């Protein structure tokens, strides 16, 4: 008794074995996604952070610092897009004050990129306070731009407003990630 199990016991055992194995395998494969989600968890909009990090193929082997570096790269790429957008909008603006404000926005994102390059270097040097200080400076350009252009009652095209929002979200995300390194 107990030795000659009915065949369906064997099937059941096999099924259980396969599914446990599958769960174990899945945990291995998604271990890095878990780290990304943990790091982005404290961001105001975790989805924006997660989307940015996962868009980088290197994210799967990145540690915490690597994840922060990827978010800074996303910020820098967004700043490049926004420089282009501000330049185009400035060229098309008829009002001279608006033209100036939009040009300043472009300059702001240009300086932001300089700040973000410096931030990446500070991050690599484990100078986390300085990293966040620079990310904050890079965010200020966007905040000032929004304020100045808003004061002239100009509405950005929706896609630009959206990208500026993403820029803010990624800035706060990286600052919160880096805050926890200190
Ligand atoms: C903003 O810039 C990007 C990149 O150059 C471009 O693809 C996009 O069409 C621009 N959007 C607007 C509204 O100009
Ligand atoms: C950061 O940006 C500001 C302008 O917002 C600039 O004055 C400063 O020199 C920049 N610092 C670095 C290290 O890029």
UniProtKB/TrEMBL annotation:
Signal peptide: 1-26
Source species, domain of life: Eukaryota
Keyword Disulfide bond: yes
UniProt cross-references to Pfam families, sorted A to Z: PMEI
GO terms assigned for molecular function: pectinesterase inhibitor activity
Protein keywords: Disulfide bond, Signal
Limits of the Pectinesterase inhibitor domain: 31-177
InterPro entries: Invertase/methylesterase_inhib, PCW_Enzyme_Inhibitor, Pectinesterase_inhib_dom, PMEI_plant
SMART domains, alphabetized: PMEI
NCBIfam families: PME_inhib
The family this protein is said to belong to: Belongs to the PMEI family.
UniProt-recorded name of the protein: Pectinesterase inhibitor domain-containing protein
